[in-house]
Amino acid sequence: MNIIIFGPPGAGKGTQSSYIVKKFNLFQLSTGDLLREEINKKTDLGNKISSIVNSGALVSDEIINKLIENVVANDKYKNRLIFDGYPRNITQAENLTKLLAKYNQKISIVIRLKVSLDIIKKRITGRMVCSVCGNTYNEFFNPPKVDAICCKGNNLTKRTDDNVEVAVKRYETYEKSTEPVINFYEKLKLVKEVNGEDKIESIYSKIDQFLSVIEG
Ligand code: AMP
Q1: Using one digit for the tens of pLDDT, what is the confidence trace for 96-130?
Q2: By Cβ atoms counted within 10 A, which residue in 19, 62, 120, 208 is the most buried?
Q3: 109-114/81-84 β-pairing
Q4: What CATH number has the domain bearing residue 99?
Q5: Is there a catalytic annotation at residue 159?
Q6: Element housing 48 (H / E)
Q7: Is 170 a catalytic residue?
Q8: Global pTM?
């Protein structure tokens, strides 16, 4: 199965994806992670997009669609992808449909995580990530035992776009460009809603029920 995990920035898409990956043996395709990798490696593409990503606006569809095709075309990931942070507008959703059809695939389910703006602000501005093992913490909801240190002893870092101003801009971009995408998938009867403000384990347990039905 291929899954889309959908929701505003800070909804917990990455956290939930990491659980789904383990249980259902899938691969997480986060366009945000792919873009940050390019920026950190200072590739030509990375240098071109870094100011866009750090402003909270969307990178061009052309760039994103190319990154996606590289993955979808790879047999290793066939029918085993979780799309996280993609599609982010209607053009990307239409592109994804075409691209999956080209490689004899489709979307099986869209999980929508619903979270209010107040919670989003705290989730984003409090978020800390371990750059070595990928564990995430939050200074409000899930602080590390030792300040700014991961349980494995590595330093925690904050994403450069995780500050209040850019968080609000990212949320506005989400409302304007990304939220309409849900109607696209509602028409296809693929959307299942989950309250993204519940505990991580409760959210995952609901997602697990939906996915287990599909896996049969
Ligand atoms: P994320 O990690 O999903 O929160 O994405 C971080 C930033 O990367 C976004 O604010 C955008 O600037 C950019 N980005 C990620 N995914 C996409 C996408 N599908 N289309 C356009 N820009 C994206």
Answers
A1: 999 999 999 999 999 999 999 889 989 999 999 99
A2: 120
A3: unpaired
A4: 3.40.50.300
A5: yes
A6: helix 44-53
A7: yes
A8: 0.91
Domain that holds residue 107: 3-115+174-215
At 29, list the tokens: 């395709």
Q: What is the spatial distance between Cα 148 and Cα 74, in angstroms, rounded to a whole number?
A: 37
User: In the annotation, is 36 catalytic?
Assistant: no
Q: How many domains does the chain have?
A: 1
Question: Can you give the length of the chain in residues?
Answer: 216
Distance of alpha carbon 115 from the chain centroid: 14
Peptide bond before residue 87 is cis, with ω within 30 degrees of 0: yes
In a domain, 154, yes or no: no
Integer Cα distance of 135 and 151 in angstroms: 9
Note whether residue 82 is domain-resident.
yes
Radius of gyration of the chain measured on its C-alpha atoms? 17
Those residues whose C-beta lies under 8 Å from the C-beta of residue 23, and which sit 6 or more positions away, are 208, 211
The CA distance from 169 to 90, in Å, is 19
Ligand 1 mean position, distance from CA 40 (Å): 15
